[in-house]
TrEMBL record:
<dbReference type="Pfam" id="PF02566">
    <property type="entry name" value="OsmC"/>
</dbReference>
<dbReference type="InterPro" id="IPR015946">
    <property type="entry name" value="KH_dom-like_a/b"/>
</dbReference>
<feature type="compositionally biased region" description="Basic and acidic residues">
    <location>
        <begin position="28"/>
        <end position="37"/>
    </location>
</feature>
<dbReference type="InterPro" id="IPR003718">
    <property type="entry name" value="OsmC/Ohr_fam"/>
</dbReference>
<feature type="region of interest" description="Disordered">
    <location>
        <begin position="1"/>
        <end position="39"/>
    </location>
</feature>
<protein>
    <submittedName>
        <fullName>OsmC family protein</fullName>
    </submittedName>
</protein>
<dbReference type="InterPro" id="IPR036102">
    <property type="entry name" value="OsmC/Ohrsf"/>
</dbReference>
Length: 140
């Protein structure tokens, strides 16, 4: 896996993945940025949510669950001192569908957390306290 980061002026950078997709990163105005893109640490948090959500949906689809929506809300805390690393992250999944089986949703979230989500496991090994929970909503 590869990526490139190109400076585009001030505190702004263009991040390009090995597959050719780009994201504009930027800093806040008080650090020379123009607030025109996510911060790098926000991208780490979004990457974690995306990785785990991908796993949860894949597992639920293989379990033949009729999922109509899946949302992952992340809440993170960072250290006060530099480096301002993540210390705690909580992932809250809101899974919506028709006649979803709670044991299968619970299993999908647990498997992502414990076995499949590379981002989550990597961050935990780095000392981040990561927790997960879920709620199930019936589709209208």
């Amino acid at each position: 896996m590869k990526a490139t980061i190109d400076w585009t002026g001030d505190a702004s950078f263009k991040a390009t993945s090995g597959s050719g997709h780009s994201v504009q990163l930027d800093g806040p105005p008080d650090h020379g940025g123009k607030d025109q893109g996510p911060r790098p640490m926000e991208m780490v948090l979004m990457g974690l949510g995306g990785c785990s959500s991908f796993d949860v949906m894949s597992i639920l689809q293989k379990s033949r669950q009729d999922v109509t929506d899946c949302r992952c809300e992340l809440d993170a805390e960072r250290a006060d001192a530099v480096p301002s690393v993540f210390t705690k992250i909580h992932l809250h999944f809101i899974v919506t569908g028709r006649d979803l089986k709670e044991n299968l949703v619970k299993r999908a979230v647990a498997l992502s957390a414990e076995k499949y989500c590379s981002a989550s496991i990597m961050l935990e090994k780095g000392g981040v306290d990561i927790t997960h929970d879920y709620e199930i909503r019936e589709a209208e």
